[in-house]
Amino acid sequence: MLNAPATQLPVRYSMSNQFASRLVWWRRRRALSQLALALRAGISQRHLSFLELARAAPSRDMVLRLAAALDVPLRQQNALLLAAGFAPEWRESDLAAPALAQLNLALDHMLAQHEPYPAFVVDRHWNLLRANQGAARLVAFLLGPLPPGTAVNLADALLAPDVLRPFLVNWTEVARYFLRSVEADAASDGSDTLLERLLDYPDTRATLKAPPDAADAPVVPMHFRKGDVSVRLFTTIATLGTPRDITAQELRIECCYPMDEASAAVMRGWL
Questions:
Q1: Domain stop point among 21, 53, 83
Q2: Residue 248: CB partners within 8 Å, gap ≥ 6?
Q3: What is the pTM of this model?
Q4: How confident is the model at residue 2 (pLDDT cuts 50, 70, 90)?
Q5: What is the extent of the structural domain holding 180?
Q6: What is the longest distance spanned by two Cα atoms in the chain?
Q7: Residue 271 has pLDDT above 60, yes or no
Q8: SS3 at position 8
Q9: What is the pLDDT of residues 144-163, one digit of tens each?
Q10: Which residues have C-beta within 8 Å of that of residue 245, sequence separation ≥ 6?
Q11: At which of 53, 83, 113 does a domain end?
């Protein structure tokens, strides 16, 4: 020990503290006691206490075990590993990477099969990655055709005052449900950045406090109206079931369905 470099212990201590603070943060985020988390992870409460106090350094396996017990997303699992002094476990591929070729084929198939109704592929921040022709026709009807290569964020498009909002008859109700889903995502992945940005738009904070409308349908529709044309849609959101890549885990496929036959006829008429 006398011959050990003077920087070794402080560096390790610093890493243990970084991991410890992140571990405590995630446990509290999940509203778990030390005992509850210890039982989930299959370790003693004493060991967990030592890890949270930085009195013990975790092994790589222990970091991953605790991350799984806390249901931490893959991106944040990598952050925990780095905080503990280990290399990341999960890769983040470009969507166009050869490793995701079969996934891309599946996405293309789902989008094509959903015609003539709109379908989108987005990332965790609601940046538009891909859309079918039904989506392009809906956007063209409401806003006009977008220039090729235009970057689109569906969350901003929904909540900004000058994009989709003027055409959404029930904007307040739709915005409230959407913001609740963003709140749930923030609780899951530990990031409030998107939520705070969206809440800066006019009237969005007030929508969260507005009482819900009387239920006249099993789901909340998006009721678009432009001129004399009215379209009512409801949406489903799908994710990949067993992701082992950060990009794959964060993908969402949103499909829109007509709420009534009149809306279906309008969209079929756009073909």
A1: 83
A2: 93, 100, 103, 240
A3: 0.85
A4: very low
A5: 98-269
A6: 84
A7: yes
A8: helix
A9: 988 888 899 999 999 999 99
A10: 74, 90, 91, 92, 93, 99, 100
A11: 83
